[in-house]
Amino acid sequence: MYKIAPSILSANFAKLGEEVINVIASGADIIHFDVMDNHYVPNLTIGPLVCSAIRPITQAVIDVHLMVKPVDRIIPDFAKAGANIISFHPEASEHIDRTLSLIKENGCKAGLVFNPGTPLSYLDHVMDKVDLILIMSVNPGFGGQKFIPDALNKLRTARQKINDSGRDIMLEIDGGVNINNIAEIAAAGCDTFVAGSALYGAGKDTDPHRYDSIIAALRAELAKVSK
Ligand code: DX5
Ligand code: ZN
User: Fold this and answer.
1) 38: left (phi > 0), else alpha (psi -120 to 50), else beta?
2) Which of 34, 37, 63, 191 is catalytic?
3) CB contact at 8 A, 171 and 201
4) N or C: which terminus of the chain has fewer CB atoms within 10 Å of its end residue's CB?
5) Active site residue: 37, 63, 131, 174, which one?
6) Residue 40 CA: which ligand is closest?
7) What is the residue-averaged pLDDT of the chain?
């Protein structure tokens, strides 16, 4: 039931197709696709064109994490490009309920993303439209940052809210996840784990890049957690 979601932000972009195929063949579940606009966050990454380029080469769920402002205009483009889940930051939308509906009208699952300083109260009146809650354990914009421990408290609170709702909502963590902390993150109620540098960094010395051993090690840590 635990899902591992490699962030392709840390992949070798000169070989992105291979990197996607290899990480899924190595046992990962979901492709986490970080979209940054040099406005909402101080970095610039990839857009719908790259999403459509990888769509035909994998059956895996593509989990688009929008770090862009404004949000709405780009949503239909990502849906057409084959995204399965589209998540956004509430601060980046003028009308959160409308943006969630727009994602769903475009045939995707909808997620809300919480920065370290963003309260979960944004969920209060839209829980029925949310399919995924993404807790940021770093400030968004860059891979390779250190996990902020308060994210564990936020995960516990979010898990309680999900249980209270009775709905099937994914609870994802993003930022600084590694082999040393994944078990305690799972114990706090998380079910989906984004890993960028810890995962893509670990395979970079093999040719072709393979991720079997790091993914197996992450799963072995998860197996220690009783639910
Ligand atoms: C940060 C991105 C993350 C990032 C995770 O803004 O949303 O997905 O790539 O990278 P690591 O796992 O290296 O912290
Ligand atoms: Zn992300």
Assistant:
1) left
2) 34
3) no
4) N
5) 174
6) 1
7) 97
**Which ligand 1 atom minimizes the distance to the CA of 9?**
9
Neighbours of 176 (CB within 10 A): 23
R_g of the chain computed on alpha carbons: 16
Angle, vertex CA 42, rays to CA 24 and CA 141, nearest 5? 35
* Residue closest to 201 by CA, chosen among 7, 4, 61, 2: 7
- Percent composition of the chain: helix, strand, coil (DSSP 3-state, to 5): 40, 20, 40
The pLDDT, as a whole number, for residue 208 is 84
Global pTM exceeds 0.90 = yes
d(CA 72, CA 160): 29
From the list 114, 68, 74, the residue with the least C-alpha distance to 92 is: 68
- What is the Å distance from ligand 2's center to 143 Cα? 9
Q: How far does the centroid of ligand 1 lie from the alpha carbon of residue 16, in Å?
A: 17
| Helix H or strand E segment including 51 | helix 48-54
Q: Which atom of ligand 1 is nearest to the CA of 176?
A: 14
Active site residue 205: no
Give the start-to-end residue ranges of the domains of the chain.
3-226
Residue nearest to atom 9 of ligand 1 (CA): 143
**According to the model, what pLDDT value does residue 227 have?**
62
Tell me: cis bond preceding 119? Omega within 30 of 0 counts.
Answer: no
Q: Tell me which of 3.20.20.70, 3.40.50.2000, 1.10.260.40, 1.20.140.10 is the CATH number of domain 3-226.
A: 3.20.20.70
